Amino acid sequence: MNELARWFDTHCHLDVEPLVDDLRGVLDRAWAAGVRRILIPAIRGPVADHGWPPWIDRAWGIHPGICAEIDPETIARRFADRDYQPRAIGETGLDTLADVPLDHQEQVFRAQLALARTHGLPLILHVRGAWERTLAILREAGRGLPWLMHSFCGSWEVAQGFLREGAFLSFSGSLCRPTARKTPRVARLAPAARLLLETDAPDLAPPWWPTRTNEPAALPSIGRFLAELRGIPATDLANQIENNVKSVWPDW
């Protein structure tokens, strides 16, 4: 990898096994690979207040797949009870594959959207299947905050709807799978200023990764794959991603 390239992982679950069991090794390998910032979404458990190095940031959120027992009326209080300053809200959204009624998911999602607006924080979106319903909620909320589409896997037609609302599209190792059909087209056509990268580790390892456990050190190879799709040097893509990230978090 070109030593000038700096990579930013906007979605990595360092707080879950097996990554949390080897944090020092995971972070050392990430830094050696050129990863210079990592955001942990929906961080939970005892590591939420872990003494993280300054290049690791955290987001607060409730995933739609685990929100069945969450009373939307308690979300503001839950947020207030946190022990750290989050850099975003999420991941939150709607998932048609989750074993939680969509109406309840929507209530929890709307409560977190309200938190993001109240505190001026970016919103990390987890969406599977419920594209139009999610887009309608965002349109109703109006612009003003960055929307980050985590591990985007929709069609170009779906992507255009979210792009018109100002969303960023984040691509993960799922982009690199031989079975990927829709996502590569989106990755080629999306405006450069709206691109982000992530690993979603420990999930979604790119097909060439030596183990099934993904980790942030894989991010540069995902970036090189995206750069090749777009026909540009990997360092140019890394610089563009850095600019995009800093448009969301200027102090990154």
Distance between the amino and carboxyl termini: 22 Å
Give the class from helix and strand content and strand pairing: alpha/beta
* H/E topology pattern: EHEEHEHEHEHEHEHH
Rg, rounded, reads 17 Å
Shape: globular
Defining key terms:
TIM Barrel; 252 residues; 5-stranded parallel sheet; 3-stranded parallel sheet
Description:
The chain is of the alpha/beta class and 252 residues long. The chain has one domain (7-248): Metal-dependent hydrolases (TIM Barrel), CATH 3.20.20. The chain contains eight helices and eight strands; from the N terminus they run βαββαβαβαβαβαβαα. It has helices spanning 23-33, 75-80, 102-119, 131-141, 156-164, 183-189, 219-230, 234-248; strands spanning 7-9, 35-40, 56-58, 89-95, 123-128, 147-149, 168-171, 195-197. The strands form two sheets. It has a five-stranded parallel β-sheet. Strands 1-2-3 form a three-stranded parallel β-sheet. Strand 7 (168-171), helix 6 and strand 8 (195-197) form a beta-alpha-beta unit. A divalent metal cation 2 binds at residues 126, 150.
Describe the SSE topology.
Layout lengths: L6 E3 L13 H11 L1 E6 L15 E3 L16 H6 L8 E7 L6 H18 L3 E6 L2 H11 L5 E3 L6 H9 L3 E4 L11 H7 L5 E3 L21 H12 L3 H15 L4
Parallel strand pairs: 1-2, 2-3, 4-5, 5-6, 6-7, 7-8
Helix pairs in contact: 7-8
Provide a brief overview of the structure:
The chain has 252 residues and is of the alpha/beta class. 35% of the residues lie in helices and 14% in strands. Strands 4-5-6-7-8 form a five-stranded parallel sheet.
